[in-house]
Specification:
The complex is a heterodimer of chains A (598) and B (89). Helices cover 41% and strands 14% of the residues of chain A. Chain A is an alpha+beta fold. In chain A, the strands form four sheets. In chain A, strands 2-1-6-3-4-5 form a six-stranded mixed sheet, sandwiched between helices. In chain A, helix 19 packs across helix 23 and helix 20 crosses helix 21. The longest helix of chain A is centred in the last third of the chain and has 21 residues. The radius of gyration of chain A is 22 Å and the shape is globular. Chain A starts with 5 loop residues before the first strand and ends with a helix. With 89 residues, chain B is an alpha+beta fold. The radius of gyration of chain B is 12 Å and the shape is globular. The chains are: A alpha+beta (598), B alpha+beta (89). Chains A and B meet through helix 8, helix 9 and helix 18 of A and strand 4 and strand 5 of B.
Chain lengths: 598, 89
């Protein structure tokens, strides 16, 4: 085994496993995780590959810090070509599975081809078995996890799997790990389903490579102190989890309501983190090695599970016009069991509600199900379930995401998506910088490529006016580069509320032995972002797609604190391109590529 | 004016919202709230007479950092929202 762990290349059709060492030059340049795997996908997945064909590759990758004693180091990435967007997919998840993979001595799994029958992988300390998954094919993620843990006979093993949504190739399908944690976005679960791969069960008893244990210990002393003392990571997130954002985003006037027809919800407190804590919270939870512990365990209908997170509450709540938490919790459970991205699910059902209310979906497509009307929580849960199961004419269309749904009914303008991926829970008309992030994100509508909400609403690390646009391109680039680096390192983005590039450079120096500086970490982020852009350009992306839905650019917010505002994204994109070293068409210049060594 | 409380600020006030009259600025509003809610509010929200840096204060949806901080002027028709430092995503 190489010192950074093995890359296991598994051909599911041939049932072959080959081992490769990590390329240390590539590791240094791309850090690991998201960056390293993107380089592999860029090099190995040819232009025009059908994302759901055997020729696409599905990569699970750790960072050099995954599974180490660095704070919040349970993260791994899934990188592939997305069937939802047609561009790069890089989906991140926490929990414990990623750390277990790293402890099994595996840096990355590269899954190729298509198994001839439902298959799962059982990996113990680097030893791989391809096993028959026919008994769990069709089962939901929770049942699958319990059955496979019993079958391998090791209750300390960890399971990442798809649910029925992934098996049926829903473009919103997630890969679930540890039951309720999701590599949720861009349809990575459908790619796994297309390969007839139901699950990866892993058990590791080793320790990931650490170049200098003492240096890491010294660096951690300061880092953990910062995380504990920080108002967000030491107090706000542990106390309320992410759901505490409901009220502040709503009060800021940027809480999209009824498929973004408005941006303020009068009764948002009924679905807030405060209400969740009062009525449904059973206990807090934390991912591997996390001193923050933002997870929530809740219970509804006798089922305990993690979540819902802020984004999920918003997607099933405000976006669908639903006020009460109970149906929101139910929809969250459905998504965790069936394996669906909650953001994509909620926004897609909201789009169906708008289409139906405006008369574009015929009753005959409902298959006898309830009318999808804004505010009807039972109908929302029903249609999320139909989406996950791929049942009824409307359910089948919902499973393809909001863009294809709206296009099928003749009104793509009702899809609140960028590059066909649904936008998350902040309105780019009220909060200009996050709108820019959505527009230029390499994986389509996404908030975690660069969480501009932090400076624009929460005041961290600086207090930016959400209505201004002047400084936003510069801030967006910094956030995008740093987030790419953190994703690649194997840490949780939430650490960045308290830590900076200097901290991450220290951890990476200790883990790898490479003499990273803060500047170099940011350059690695820039390199990763640029390579993702090159992948997308090769697949046909044009600058015309670096924008927001016309509703955000042309329809002023009708009520609330930001009444009258529209997005000014078109004014920000050119400056963002310039700062990136891209030409006016959004193509990296030869000089830029040379400077990054691409 | 209407004053809304969120997160553990509600633990200091024991209620979700209140009405206050006659406060001309944010700092005078906080003085009035400290008088109303007592020592815990004063200690946590107004340490040493200064507005706590661990609170987020919005006036009609706008962070007071963009309208004058503690000196932000207030009108009777304003809505003030007070949050602890929060985060997420």
């Amino acid at each position: 085994m190489g010192k950074f762990g093995d890359i296991l290349r598994i051909d599911l059709a041939k049932k072959s496993v080959t081992r490769e060492d990590v390329d240390e030059n590539q590791l240094r340049d791309y850090i690991g995780g998201r960056g390293y795997a993107t380089k592999m996908v860029y090099d190995e997945v040819p232009k025009g590959t059908d994302p759901l064909s055997p020729q696409n590759k599905l990569i699970f990758a750790c960072g050099p810090l995954t599974g180490t004693s660095s704070p919040a180091s349970g993260r791994y990435m899934v990188v592939t070509k997305s069937p939802l967007t047609g561009y790069i997919a890089s989906s991140n998840s926490g929990g414990f599975w990623g750390a277990e993979l790293a402890k099994a001595g595996i840096f990355a799994l590269v899954l190729e081809g298509k198994a001839d029958a439902p298959t799962y992988l059982w990996i113990k300390d680097g030893k791989v078995e391809l096993r028959d998954a026919s008994k769990v094919w069709g089962k939901d993620g929770h049942e699958t996890t319990d059955m496979l843990l019993a079958e391998v006979g090791d209750d300390k093993a960890r399971v990442a799997c798809i649910g029925p949504a992934g098996e049926k190739l829903s473009l919103l399908a997630a890969i679930m790990n540890d039951k309720d944690r999701a590599a949720g976005r861009s349809g990575v679960g459908a790619v796994m389903g297309s390969k007839n791969l139901k699950a990866v069960v892993v058990r590791g008893t080793g320790m990931p490579y650490m170049h200098d244990v003492n240096a890491l210990r010294d660096a951690l002393r300061d880092g953990v102190h910062k995380l504990k003392e920080n108002g967000v990571t030491g107090k706000g997130l542990p106390a309320y989890g992410t759901a505490v954002l409901v009220n502040i985003i709503n009060q800021t006037g940027g809480y999209p309501y009824r498929n973004w027809q408005d941006a303020y919800m009068e009764k948002a407190d009924s679905q807030s983190g405060e209400t969740l804590a009062d009525k449904y919270l059973k206990k807090n939870s934390a991912c591997f090695g996390c001193p923050i512990g933002c997870g929530r365990v809740t219970e509804v209908d006798g089922k305990k599970g993690e979540g819902p997170e802020y984004e999920s509450i918003w997607a099933f709540g405000s976006c669908c016009g639903v006020e009460d938490l109970e149906p929101i919790l139910r929809a969250n459970v459905v998504c965790n069991e069936l394996g669906i991205d909650t953001i994509g699910a909620g926004v897609t059902v909201a789009a169906a509600m708008e289409l139906y209310e405006k008369g574009f979906i015929p009753d005959g497509d409902l298959g006898g199900g309830p009318k999808p009307l804004f505010g009807d929580g039972d109908a929302m849960v029903h249609w999320v379930t139909m989406m996950g199961k791929g049942e009824t004419p409307l359910g089948k269309r919902l499973a393809l995401g909001s863009y294809r749904l709206c296009e099928a009914y003749g009104h793509p303008e009702f899809s609140m998506s960028v590059k066909k991926q649904e936008m998350p829970a902040y309105d780019g008309r009220a909060i200009q910088g996050i709108g820019l992030t959505y527009a230029v994100s390499n994986r389509g509508g996404c908030h975690v490529r660069g969480y501009l909400i932090s400076p624009e609403v929460l005041g961290i690390p600086d207090k930016l006016d959400p209505e201004d646009i002047g400084a936003k391109p510069q801030w967006a680039k910094i956030f995008h580069d740093l987030s790419a680096a953190i994703d690649s390192a194997g840490l949780c983005l939430f650490t960045s509320f308290a830590l900076g590039a200097e901290d991450y450079a220290g951890y990476l120096r200790a883990a790898t032995g490479f003499d990273y500086t803060a500047d170099e970490v940011m350059t690695c982020g820039d390199r990763i972002w640029t390579l993702e852009r090159l992948f997308n350009l090769r697949e046909g992306l044009t600058a015309a797609e670096d924008t927001l839905p016309s509703r955000l650019r042309e329809e002023p917010i009708p009520s609330g604190p930001m009444k009258g505002k529209t997005s000014r994204v078109a004014e920000m994109v050119p400056e963002y391109y310039r700062l990136r070293g891209w030409d006016e068409k959004g193509v990296p210049t030869p000089e830029k590529l040379r400077s990054l060594g691409i | 004016m209407k004053v809304l409380f969120f997160g553990f600020v509600r633990d200091m006030t024991g209620e979700k919202e209140t009405a206050v009259e006659g406060a001309a600025t944010i700092i005078s509003l906080f003085e009035a709230l400290a008088t109303r809610y007592g020592e815990r509010f004063r200690t946590e929200a107004l340490p040493e007479g200064e507005l706590s840096s661990e609170l987020i204060v919005l006036v009609n949806g706008r962070h007071i950092a963009h309208s004058g901080g503690a000196a932000t002027p207030l009108r009777e028709e304003d809505t003030v929202a007070i949050f602890p430092l929060v985060g997420g995503g």
